[in-house]
Structure formats: structure tokens, C-alpha cells
Amino acid sequence: MPIGILRREAVSSVEYDLLHTFNAVKYASTLTNAEDISKEETELVLIAEWFHDTGLTVTYSGHEEKSVDIASSFLESQLADYKIKIVADCILATKRGVEPRNTLHYIMHDADYYHLFQPDYFQLVENLRLEVNEVQKKSFTIKEWHEENAKFLEQHAFYTNHCQSRWKEYKEILIMKNSRLMNESIH
Asked: Nearest 10 degrees: CA dihedral of 40, 48, 26, 148?
């Protein structure tokens, strides 16, 4: 399975967080139950979730397309072509800026952003800042990163009914806390 793929050298020297994949799969499983999709659709979403970041072993920017290539190659002898196409579409639904088009995509999107619901959200965000600084050769100060995070949180949308009903208010709390941290980083 993709675990071996993910254990390969990632493009970032900040070690790729396998925990993200495990948790995204776990949360996708929760969402497939909450959204009441079929057993076959559940299987395809979970397969897609396992593969959604494997492209990071090849490239940082555009890794979703590489993840599709890796998944398709791995799955070609194990799944029918139409199922591989569904897995590929689900992986591409995790790309930032892509608008999910159906329930499977909604689940993929919301599971990929499970970290919004974690108590250590701001530590995860700081780790991402360090990764972006290193891999993309950008240099965000803490204040600039909080400004980027504010934009992200304002633009982010939940798509599954489960997340909309459970996490919308919590996201508002994150927005307020981020604003406070941004103001504190000025002083």
C-alpha cells in the first residue's frame, strides 16, 4: 500500500508527516459514515485518501497530479478503470483552490483539512510555515504567516453536512485566536 511510498525520501527535508495521512484516512472514514455513502464509494474514498499526498515523494508543487500517477500505477492491476478514475478525481479534489463537485469530493476535502479541528492547530500551522519556508524558498515571518493563515481561514469552506454542523463555530474561534496571535506578533 502507499505506506512504503510515503516512507521514501520526501521532497522536503522537513519530514513528511505520515500522521497527516493516517488522520485524514481516519476522518474520511468518519465522514463516509456520517454522509451515508455506499460501501463501494467508501472504499474508493479511503483508497484515494491513502494516496492523496504520495506525490510529495516527487514534488511539492503540483503533488496531487503526481499522487494520481502513483495511485493509478499502483492500482491498475487491482481495480477497474472506472474505479481508478474515481480515485483520481477524489485525489484531485484535495488540491487547494479546487471546488469539490460531489459528496465523495466533499469528504476528501474536509478530511484533508481535519487539522482544523485539532487542539494543536497552531503548532501544525507553524510546522507548515517552516516547511513552506524551506521547500518553496519563501521566508514568511510569524506575522506574515498569521496574515496568510487569516486569509486561508476566511476563504476555507466545509462541504460535508457533518463538518458544517460540527466545526463552523470552532473555525470562528480559530479566526479570533489567529487574529490575537497576529496582533501579538506585531509587539
From this structure: -140
- Reported as type and span, the H/E element at residue 71 is helix 63-75
CATH class of 2-186: mainly alpha
Query: Distance between CA atoms of 86 and 74, rounded to whole angstroms?
Result: 14
Which pTM was predicted?
0.85
Contact at 8 Å (CB) between 95 and 55? Answer: no
Q: Report pLDDT digits (tens) over 99-121.
A: 999 999 999 999 998 887 788 88
Q: Which residue's entry shows cell 510529495?
A: 56
C-alpha cell at 53: 499526498
The residue whose grid cell reads 457533518 is 162
Per-residue CA distances from 5 to 27, 48, 145 (Å): 21, 14, 30
Are the C-beta atoms of 112 and 94 separated by less than 8 Å? Answer: yes
Closest Cα partner for 50 from 33, 25, 17? 25
